[in-house]
Amino acid sequence: MSNYHIKHLEEYYQVYRKSVQEPEKFWEEIAEEHFLWQKRWDEVLSWDFAKPEIKWFDGAELNITENCIDRHLATRSDKTAILFEPNDPNDPTEHITYKQLHERVNKMANVLKSQGISKGDRVCIYLPMIPELAISILACARIGAIHSVIFAGFSATAIASRVNDSDCKLVITSDGSYRGAKTIDLKGIVDEALESCPGVHTSLVVKRINSDVSMKAGRDKWLQPLLDEASNTCEIEIMKAEDPLFILYTSGSTGQPKGMVHTTAGYMVYTAYSFKNVFQYKENDVYWCTADIGWITGHSYIVYGPLLNGATTVMFEGVPSYPDFGRFWDIVQKHKVTQFYTAPTAIRALARQGTELVNEYDLSSLKVLGSVGEPINEEAWHWYNDNVGKNKSPIVDTWWQTETGGIMITPIPFVTPTKPTYATLPFIGIQPTLMSESGEELMDNQVEGKLCIKFPWPSMARTIWANHKRYEETYFSTYKNKYFTGDGALRDEVGYYRITGRVDDVIIVSGHNLGTAPIEDAINEHPAVAESAVVGFPHEVKGNALYGYVTLKDTGESRNQENLQKEINQIITEHIGPIAKLDKIQFTDGLPKTRSGKIMRRILRKIASKDTGDLGDTSTLQNPEIVKDIMDNVV
Ligand code: WTA
């Protein structure tokens, strides 16, 4: 029996049992057989969720890029590692072989060194989906610098707060990016951000769109001339198992985004193992995940997981609608993609186009389809299954989080029978549980509760950068000795899980996590605004969209509401980015509040969702009369 590659359901149960009964032994075998180590570990696992402190493979030494690249050179040096599909379908595809990747990563690593970056330094990467993004990530890992990728849709303010939080010394960006028919001035956004980032001494600029950007003397440097000069060999930095590999920010229900810290060895073992099994990856498959590397999905399942397995991973620069809504299918046909991993919001947008385009292309290469980022509704699931998978490619509905580093609940294709809208069974080594409102563990099937994980897994985030207390409070204080996910779920009669959505103030819009607090803070910056509350409401394509309730300061003047709406969305765009714009804004004289002054979001959510049949108990409000007023004026 090969624990590394599960092939049928009975084997899944066997391997799963072993992974929870003897987790140390199980993961030790995987780690031993499938990776290169510079030094072996002293202890497979030590953990204490009360502290919380989790260590996997402590004492071991390694470099993840040796595992992603160097060790494949003997057998796969001319195999394509990264298949880059540019925004414009008329531009040539770029095939970067393992050998070329090795050289380019080494050169980039040497450039970083020449700019004074060394082990433990933080490097911010703000790039579009071009090969330099993956190469920069790997170059950081090669020299032990901690990468902090910021999705290239975030605003200058959002970049600055992240760069300062983790005290990045250097930023890698580009002169701009292509997005369908548009170009975006990334350099300008970074320049604005860096005005308030005194710790950044260097900005390396990739030339992508040949735009006329200004370069600040002493700080900004074109990357290519430095690469041209750099040597193509670079020794790996020897890293400890628990040395940080990267920081990735995710929204919390309150306050600033959380810089989740992932460490080296456990992350490597788990992303490699889960990639192999969840996508039933086989040599010579062409794997494509449509996510942006700015999110965890891209880190784990475009870069690290596939490269650790010596796979060919597609990187797509563009958008699904350019030059038309057939682009995804065109890419699948052109490169004979075997695994296709996308988000429900993309599926819904494509489904809206009907079936004509999807039927125009040859999708027969596809073997496995994946979904991630938010619950997939039944209609989208069937559209995907019927029209893309042609009822023969299983859909893996993968539930996981930035914090979990890797896929946690998922079917294994051709192994676990799928069920629409269900993420189904825990992946190997994962021990989920559901908790009742009163904090009891729900042991039966056919129950609904708050989703927690009872036992550590190798790729869990170890802390929040510079804020371990927040890590403890957010994830380990709600339920004793359990990691709390922030999601609700139900478990059916056979033990399948269905994720029902966030139970906190995080809203998932088009698969992007957004905290309500920072959006409200941005709205409240508007001089006319007294107070605001943001909630989610169901949206046909985005899954959820944002609804803002805004009260204005009483200045006696009348204000043009249309202009105000535009101004509010402009402020949100500046503070966070266009993804956080409100779809609907309702101006109201007040917000429903409890006697202690807390906004009753539950009621606002129901009103925004037009689900006002049962608003629950409103008698504890200090201003119950406002509820009717809000309902009468709902947008
Ligand atoms: C949601 C993305 C239902 C969930 C990898 C989680 C999902 C949050 C699914 C994490 C799924 C992710 N079904 N909900 N298959 N996958 N989610 O950190 O609410 O960007 O907590 O990680 O997305 O989003 P994040």
Structure, described:
- The protein is α/β, with parallel strands linked by helices.
- Helices cover 31% and strands 24% of the residues.
- It is built from 20 helices and 31 strands.
- α15 links the parallel β19 and β20.
- The longest helix is centred in the first third of the chain and has 17 residues.
- The protein is globular.
- Bound molecules: 5'-O-[(S)-ethoxy(hydroxy)phosphoryl]adenosine.
- 5'-O-[(S)-ethoxy(hydroxy)phosphoryl]adenosine binds next to α11, β19, β20, β25 and β26.
Percent range for β-strand residues: 15-25%
What would the average pLDDT be, to the nearest integer?
A: 96
Strand order of the largest sheet: 12-11-8-6-7-14-15-24
Cα-to-Cα separation, first versus last residue? 59 Å
Q: Which structural class fits the helix and strand makeup? A: alpha/beta
Radius of gyration from CA coordinates = 24 Å
**Helix tally?**
20
Query: How many distinct beta strands?
Result: 31
Q: Which percent bin holds the helix content?
A: 25-40%
Can you tell me the overall shape? globular
* Low-pLDDT residue intervals, each spanning 5 or more residues: none
